[in-house]
Amino acid sequence: MTQTSTPKKKYDVILYGASGFVGRQTVAYFAAHPDVQTSRLRWALAGRSRPKLEAVRASISGANKAGIVVAEAHDTAAMDALAASARVVLSTAGPFALYGSELVAACVRHGTHYVDITGETPWVKGLIDQHDVQAQKNGARIIPFCGFDSIPSDLSAWLAHRAMREQFDEECVRVKVAFSLRGGFNGGTLASMFNMLEQGQMAQMADPFLLNPPGSRPAAGGMHADPVAPRHDGDFSAWLGPFMMSTINTRVVRRSAALLGYGNDYGYQEYLRLGRGLAAALAATTLSVGSATTQAVLRLRPVRWLAKKLAPAPGEGPSEAGMDSGSFRARWVGESASGHKVRGEIADQGDPSNRATTKMLCESALCLALQQDELPGGRQLGGLLTPASGLGDVLVGRLRAAGMMLKSDSGQPNQPKRHKGRES
Ligand SMILES: NC(=O)c1ccc[n+]([C@@H]2O[C@H](COP(=O)([O-])OP(=O)(O)OC[C@H]3O[C@@H](n4cnc5c(N)ncnc54)[C@H](OP(=O)(O)O)[C@@H]3O)[C@@H](O)[C@H]2O)c1
Question: How many whole angstroms separate alpha carbon 243 and alpha carbon 119?
């Protein structure tokens, strides 16, 4: 493993939003991470409130060596100073459309790598339009979607693409992912969703190619339409229904497909796996009707007002026990034009929105901080990237080492679990 410290910058990694619900978990993860200790990584907690940041640092064993950086999200000078002092910024301050734009702009200006856990596709579309060219010039890897949205999807598609090439020397024309999960909701996630609804961004969110680079919009759009109906799928031997996060994840995978050249005929879809038998068929049907109804009623202002009142507030989330008992499993199947199939899965224990998201985000930042020379595209690559195009196999390796199961037909056994960060 290479430590690529640049002496000019004060910190290797700054954790922005460190006093938030997920932010506190990222601090605990960093504090307990063996690579952070052995590489003598210089890291800091950042956010708008010094007292809150100091309280977080004091409450987490092993965080005492971390610095503190105070910077309000709309203070351009503070954002500039923060980005200038870091090689990598990891952000959990969301809704990102409200608190993320100045930070990304500053990272692009200073050639600072950036990762976050946004699922706000219209916001990222704006970042692509505004910053992609400059980030390429400055060698800044700007990589949103490094949480449960959308790393399991993006890496499933990447592993399927590679397995098909390695085993059959062909391209996948179709990749499907079926998710099973158990977990809770954070107030911050719901706030981000409500913000997108209030900004009237539903039409943008419905565009299957929202995040594709200019000129890479496939002609045959029909096969990319978001699934709305229940279906029985022989590849998974199960009933499937619409998956709530798929309108985020599929856009990210399609951007990866264009950036990494998965092929002109490439199609990607994902679903929620409901299981086998009559009960599963009924559940899939109920889910399909329920999803469509929820989307329709959430357009109504009074319904949103009520939903906000009932939902957890920003800063709140599931209990520690609830987060420990969660899990996710993403089974994937890739198919070539000649009918060859490859299979695999990605799975982990712990609440997907918190435990798995924290692991994926922190390991993404550590890819950039500790293994820059091994990343796809070499040291100079920059731009508005996806997890697969910006981190690729380095991230696959780090997640395996951190105990996540990422399996594909091409083999590569998992390595044993290494550590687990927790607040003290
Ligand atoms: N991809 C995924 O799977 C996934 C999973 C979970 C969450 N998320 C997303 O991650 C984000 C955070 O979630 P969360 O549950 O951690 O939310 P949260 O607890 O509400 O945290 C929000 C953070 O933003 C900070 N913030 C608010 N206003 C600010 C400002 N003006 N300047 C600087 N910082 C400001 C807050 O600082 P204070 O502490 O000072 O209030 C806090 O640190 C949300 O957008 C959510 O959708 C994504």
Answer: 14
Determine if ligand 1 sits within 6 Å of the CB of residue 119.
yes
Whether the full predicted model's pTM is greater than 0.70, yes or no, is: yes
Q: Which residues pair with 238 in a beta bridge?
A: 233
Sheet holding 11-16: strands in order across? 67-70, 43-47, 11-16, 86-91, 113-116, 141-143, 383-384
Q: Is the beta carbon of 269 within 6 A of some atom in ligand 1?
A: no
Task: Name the pLDDT band for 220 (thresholds 50, 70, 90).
Answer: low
Q: Could you say which of 3.30.360, 3.40.190, 3.30.980, 1.10.3470 is the CATH number of the domain covering 151-352?
A: 3.30.360
Q: Is 316 in the pocket of ligand 1 (CB under 6 A)?
A: no
Q: Could you tell me the residue ranges of all domains in the chain?
A: 11-146+353-403, 151-352
Q: Is the pLDDT reported for residue 49 higher than 60?
A: yes
User: Matching CATH topology for 11-146+353-403 and 151-352?
Assistant: no
Per-residue pLDDT band at 215 (split at 50, 70, 90): confident
Res 417: pLDDT: 42
For the domain made up of 11-146+353-403, the CATH class stated in words is: alpha beta
Whole-number average pLDDT of the chain: 92
Predicted pLDDT at 281: 92
Q: Measuring CA to CA, which residue among 194, 193, 191, 249 is closest to residue 224?
A: 249
Smallest CA separation from ligand 1 atom 46, residue: 189
